[in-house]
């Protein structure tokens, strides 16, 4: 099973991608997490992408496509793409690379969220700097306030979650996504998710659409 999740920053794609992966035993490939890990490790790629990330700008398509190709092509397992593709050239390159290995995308889910709700999601978002687990003060709080459930590390606000950068990221997203959504909408494997609800409501909707689309049995 191969899926891609589209949606603005803060739409909850990361949370839902992890849950889909747990249920169907898939690999979660978050382009944002991959880039942040490179940046933190100070690799050549990390140094190339740092300024784009910190300013809420998209990493250039050629670089981004190369990074994702390295991750996707060796995979034996099904996967959920989260944050990639983000532009029409990325979507076309993804199609070419997957067609080349006879493993096309099965389903594209487009997460749509009310603008006011989106703003509040950023204010409350926290992340573990070590294992990158994402929390939210309102909806996904850690067991111990301020600490990661997995490793006890102090949670932080992502540098690109600051209000100015968030505004820029949402604007960038809207400009780049319109042609991408039009591209996928004309294909039979595109579904919209109303992602304004709480994470459990959204998960219910997502799993229902995934199961229906792939004609999977429901657990007893
Ligand atoms: P995210 O966590 O998905 O919001 O991504 C954080 C940042 O990484 C974005 O603001 C971009 O700078 C960069 N990024 C992530 N995915 C992509 C992509 N598919 N294309 C270009 N830049 C990306």
Describe this structure as you would to a colleague.
- The chain is 49% helix and 14% strand.
- By secondary structure, it is of the alpha/beta class.
- The strands form 2 sheets. It has a 5-stranded parallel beta sheet, with helices on both faces. A two-stranded antiparallel sheet has the order 5-6.
- Helix 1 crosses helix 8 (199-214).
- Bound molecules: adenosine monophosphate (AMP).
- Residues 9, 31-32, 35, 52-53, 56-59, 64, 83-84, 86, 90, 160, 169 line the site of adenosine monophosphate (AMP).
Bound molecule types: adenosine monophosphate
Quote the average pLDDT: 91
Any idea what the radius of gyration is?
17 Å
Helix-residue proportion = 40-55%
Strand count: 7
Principal-axis shape:
globular
- Adjacency order of strands in the biggest sheet: 2-3-1-4-7
Helix and strand element order: EHEHHHEHEHEEHEH
What portion of residues belong to β-strands? 5-15%
User: For the terminal residues, how far apart are their CA atoms?
Assistant: 21 Å
Largest sheet: 5 strands, parallel
Describe the SSE topology.
Elements lengths: L1 E5 L6 H12 L2 E4 H11 L2 H11 L6 H12 L6 E4 L5 H13 L6 E6 L2 H10 E3 L6 E3 L26 H23 L4 E5 L4 H16 L6
Parallel strand pairs: 1-3, 1-4, 2-3, 4-7
Antiparallel strand pairs: 5-6
Helix pairs in contact: 1-8, 2-3, 4-5
The chain binds adenosine monophosphate.
Adenosine monophosphate binds next to helix 2 and helix 3.
Q: Could you provide a short overview of the structure?
A:
The chain is α/β, with parallel strands linked by helices.
